[in-house]
Amino acid sequence: MATRQQFSDFLSDVEIRAYKQALYAVRDEQAALDIVQDSMLKLTEKYSDKPDTELPLLFQRILQNTITDHYRRKKTRSTWITLFSAFSSESEEKDNEYSDLLETLQVNDDSINKYNPDV
Q: Which residues of the chain have pLDDT under 70?
């Protein structure tokens, strides 16, 4: 089992290399910092009972998985943004009247209630 000092020494030794690796992979400084921080946190939370000889391999695997997770989240966000942008019509984009989807839905709901008071 690695002691607190061994964990601290390991993390300080690997910090710069991990940042460079994450920066090379994602090409975004803030995202790379977040990835390294998340990886270090996961290592300390879940693998503090492992011997210090296993830390480098565990950390590399965690770092690679965190980078992969970053790309998955980025792809999912991009997909949803594309799908939500399809809701707005060209005239709405031109006039910027209903750029917010919730506002558009509320306006449509109000117009339905106007013609059908029983709803």
A: 88-119
Residues whose CB is less than 8 angstroms from the CB of residue 4 and which lie 6 or more positions away in sequence, other chains included: none
For residues 55 and 2, the answer to whether their CB atoms sit within 8 Å is yes
Residue 89's closest CA among 76, 80, 77, 98?
98
| N residues, the chain | 119
The overall pTM is greater than 0.90: no
- The Cα–Cα gap between 22 and 67 comes to 7
Asked if the 4-86 domain carries CATH number 1.10.1740, the reply is: yes
Q: What is residue 78's predicted lDDT score, i.e. its pLDDT?
A: 82
- Ordered by start, the domain boundaries in the chain are 4-86, 89-119
Query: What tokens does 9 get?
Result: 């020494």
